[in-house]
Amino acid sequence: KEAFSGCKGLTSIEIPDSVEIIGNAAFSNCTNLKDVKIGGGLEELGTAVFAGCENLEEISIASENFVCDKSIIYDAKKEVVYEMLPGRMANTYNMPSTVIDIKPYAFWGCNNLQTVTLSENLNNIPAYTFSNCVSLKTVEIPYSVGRIHMKAFENCVNLQAITVPLSVQFIHDTAFDGCGNFKVNAVEESYADKYFKDRNITNISKAEYEDIQSVIMQNALTQEEVDALKEAEQEAEKEEANKENSQPSQEE
Known about the structure:
- The structure is a single chain.
- This protein is of the alpha/beta class and 252 residues long.
- Helices cover 21% and strands 20% of the residues.
- A hairpin with a 2-residue loop joins strand 6 (66-69) and strand 7.
- It starts with 11 loop residues before the first strand and ends in a 6-residue tail after the last helix.
């Protein structure tokens, strides 16, 4: 895990047949990595192995357990998407219908990706799947998907439209953090429709709160003025006390 993470001087690597496992984020943020050859012994591949490797567009995998096709790493049967290489130049992705699962972080930080159509056999959109895909504009979610997990579309700041079917019955509160406003295609009164209406109301409430806070701050006293007022109040109290003490009592 994270064995070579952040090795910015690393440009190429050849992994021998003896290596059976590559852990999570093993080469993440190796920003100058361009050439990767993986041997035939690989049996297990972690998540986000090449996340942030912005110059890596293709890799060679000799193992019969995995395949890299058009900058995307799948299992041999193309049932699982492990990762889209961040250096992929194409801006659209039509997921093969064979895909039933996506690994977390699979598309993390793929800056060129703009349009996605997911497999009609996909069940869930895992955590952080499209997080930080800053160019992503539209996503088509098929009827097979039932759940959208934590921060799945976090910081997709240019998201313009998303289609969410009736089948979706769970969307994590943070799934669209940092996405701003976008058009939602969802059936009226469906789970997704209610979720996004509530989300928009929450965003409006936050904006109103920020406006109110701004007005309060504009009209607020500075700390010096607050301190001066306190001092004036204290002086007034002292003067009042002195007057009371200096007055003769009725007995006198």
